[in-house]
């Protein structure tokens, strides 16, 4: 009796390996954020596994038309020839990839990976492939019924995820499961925050809103801010204690009720007597961009009121997928409530300017209050808007001919202008055309993956990769189907690990934009420079204000 053939369970598939190495090599090309060797290994590893599984699937389909089985000698020769092709490809990809990372690191002002660090990408990528392929083969090796159970559970989980992302009102199983999981992170404080004593802060003993109800982000927001000395030095005028109003999910889960409570808190603090009220939309976890708020308060010497609320317990990445309705409701209801309260003030009484602000997911929510920039009545500042923002997308799509997607000009800059990086201080003169109030500003860095990430990257080259690259993106950055989508997805994880002016890190740039939108009377560029100097001196946040 002839011996039974040995089943080579863990052998590699040549077509799968070829496609995997091709995608993994393309993943070594640069995109927006410099990568370490370990991180590159994760990026290339997933592409290696994806290409491998794709190649295996294609080979299985091809068996219907070609069933010839090569001899052992032919098979061995084929592997030798394949290795002679793939090994040089991997070496060239690593060498070119390291050179690109060094150039990109210099462009963004970060430390470049060493050769030893970069070579770590190889074992990490192989490890990712081994783990993912082992999982697939492990499931296939199960007996029929356990395998069907595992596949069935995977299908159910995928279906629940798709239903959650679909945004069906009242139907969000993923959110229902994740909210309790993240509730624990909303407890406690951050950075030594303590309950404020000033009656001009939510959560204080005089507040309508209790300290525990604010959530972690709210407690951080109301208990910090510039010192009186910094406010006076930056503004050149006697300091006034800034008003900070925050309504957490502990007060109400309903966006309209939170907006009503916020208006009552604004009335209690006397906010409608301030010259400026800024309506902010927070990130997913309820945190506020400190630099942007501090900049406005410093320039006005504290004579401002800032109001916002919490709408989610989840991080922004998950909120972007699962919280579309809550994000939009938070931005719309708060602005509408504050705007209505200001409009209802008695005739002849001075009315504050109601400006809006949001960064990242907050920018998405804040824009939801406006179906057009024509509805912005006093001014708006939106930093790093996600690509899914409808208002931003409509403006960029309708930009003036010949202007790039990374730095568009819309309507000759009459209502809205786009800055970021070195372009921000010159917004009022770029383009050289009238820019009457109210003014709207978008800050977006060419290297900010939050702005440019989109599912369309999977199979469609975007304009920002068809036009000349932005000033902090290498000209060698190219679009590749599937690969670029995954690279930019991973870029978002490290988008804030770069200096101000790059990636998703806007920081002091907000000051220049604010001074274009809502400057104090008689404000000059010298005044802006003075505030920047105070910002650069550091030490502004003061817990327990």
Description:
This protein is α/β, with parallel strands linked by helices and 545 residues long. It has two domains: 14-63 and 73-166, no CATH class; 190-445 and 506-534, no CATH class. The chain has 19 helices and seven strands. A seven-stranded parallel β-sheet has the order 1-3-2-4-5-7-6, sandwiched between helices. It starts with 13 loop residues before the first helix and ends in an 8-residue tail after the last helix. Mean pLDDT is 87; it is low at 1-10.
Summarize model confidence as the mean pLDDT.
87
**Low-pLDDT segments, ≥5 res:** 1-10
Spatial strand sequence of the major β-sheet: 1-3-2-4-5-7-6
Order of helices and strands: HHHHHHHHHEHEHEHHEHEHEEHHHH
Number of strands: 7
What portion of residues is helical?
A: 40-55%
Strand content: 5-15%
Annotation field: number of helices: 19
> What is the domain total for the residues?
2
The biggest sheet amounts to: 7 strands, parallel
Shape: globular
Descriptors:
545 residues; alpha/beta; seven-stranded parallel β-sheet
List the helices and strands and how they pair.
Blueprint: H1 14-26, H2 37-62, H3 72-108, H4 115-119, H5 121-141, H6 144-166, H7 173-183, H8 215-222, H9 228-235, E1 243-247, H10 255-269, E2 276-281, H11 290-299, E3 304-309, H12 316-322, H13 324-343, E4 353-359, H14 361-367, E5 380-383, H15 390-397, E6 416-419, E7 440-443, H16 449-452, H17 483-491, H18 509-517, H19 525-537
Short description:
This protein is α/β, with parallel strands linked by helices and 545 residues long. 47% of the residues lie in helices and 7% in strands.
């Amino acid at each position: 009796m002839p011996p039974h053939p040995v089943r080579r369970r863990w052998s590699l598939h040549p077509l799968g390996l070829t496609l995997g190495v091709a995608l993994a090599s393309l993943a070594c090309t640069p995109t927006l954020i410099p990568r370490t060797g370990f991180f590159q290994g994760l990026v290339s590893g997933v592409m290696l596994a994806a290409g491998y599984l794709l190649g295996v699937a294609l080979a299985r389909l091809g068996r219907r038309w070609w069933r010839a089985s090569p001899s052992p000698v032919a098979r061995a020769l084929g592997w030798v020839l394949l290795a002679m092709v793939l090994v040089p490809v991997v070496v060239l990809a690593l060498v070119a990839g390291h050179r690109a990372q060094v150039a990109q690191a210099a462009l963004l002002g970060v430390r470049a990976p060493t050769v030893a660090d970069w070579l770590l990408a190889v074992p990490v990528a192989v490890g990712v492939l081994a783990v993912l392929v082992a999982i697939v083969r492990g499931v296939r090796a199960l007996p029929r019924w356990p395998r069907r159970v595992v596949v069935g559970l995977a299908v159910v989980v995928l279906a629940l995820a798709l239903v959650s992302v679909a945004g069906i009102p009242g139907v969000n199983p993923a959110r229902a499961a994740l909210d309790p999981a993240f509730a624990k992170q909303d407890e406690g404080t951050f950075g030594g925050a303590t309950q404020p004593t000033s009656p001009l802060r939510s959560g204080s003993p005089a507040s309508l809103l209790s300290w525990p109800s604010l959530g972690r982000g709210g407690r951080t927001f109301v208990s910090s801010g510039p010192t009186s000395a910094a406010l006076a030095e930056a503004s050149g005028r006697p300091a006034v204690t800034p008003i900070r109003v925050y309504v957490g999910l502990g007060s109400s889960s309903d966006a309209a009720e939170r907006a009503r409570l916020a208006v009552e808190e604004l009335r209690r603090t006397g906010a409608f007597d301030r010259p400026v009220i800024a309506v902010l939309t927070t990130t997913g976890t309820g945190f506020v961009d400190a630099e942007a708020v501090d900049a406005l308060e410093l320039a006005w010497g504290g004579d401002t009121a800032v109001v916002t609320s919490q709408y989610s317990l989840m991080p922004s990445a998950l909120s972007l997928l699962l919280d579309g309705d809550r994000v939009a409701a938070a931005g719309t209801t708060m602005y509408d409530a504050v705007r209505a309260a200001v409009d209802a003030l008695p005739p002849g009484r001075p009315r504050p300017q109601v400006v809006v602000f949001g960064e990242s997911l907050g920018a998405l929510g804040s824009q939801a209050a406006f179906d057009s920039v024509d509805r912005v009545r006093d001014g708006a500042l939106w930093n790093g808007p996600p690509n899914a923002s409808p208002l931003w997308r409509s403006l960029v799509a309708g930009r003036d001919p010949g202007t790039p997607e990374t730095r568009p000009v819309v309507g000759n800059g009459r209502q809205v202008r786009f800055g970021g990086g070195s372009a921000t201080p010159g917004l009022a003169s770029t383009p050289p055309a009238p820019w009457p109030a109210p003014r709207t500003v978008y800050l977006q860095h060419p290297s900010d993956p939050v702005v440019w990430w989109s599912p369309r990257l999977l199979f469609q080259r975007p304009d920002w990769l068809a036009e000349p690259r932005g000033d902090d993106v290498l000209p060698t950055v190219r679009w590749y189907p599937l690969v670029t989508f995954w690279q930019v997805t991973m870029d978002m994880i490290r988008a804030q690990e770069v200096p101000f002016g790059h990636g998703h890190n806007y920081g002091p740039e907000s000051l220049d934009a604010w001074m274009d939108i809502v400057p104090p009377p008689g404000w000059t560029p010298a005044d802006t420079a003075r505030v920047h100097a105070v910002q650069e001196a550091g030490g502004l946040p003061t817990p327990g204000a």
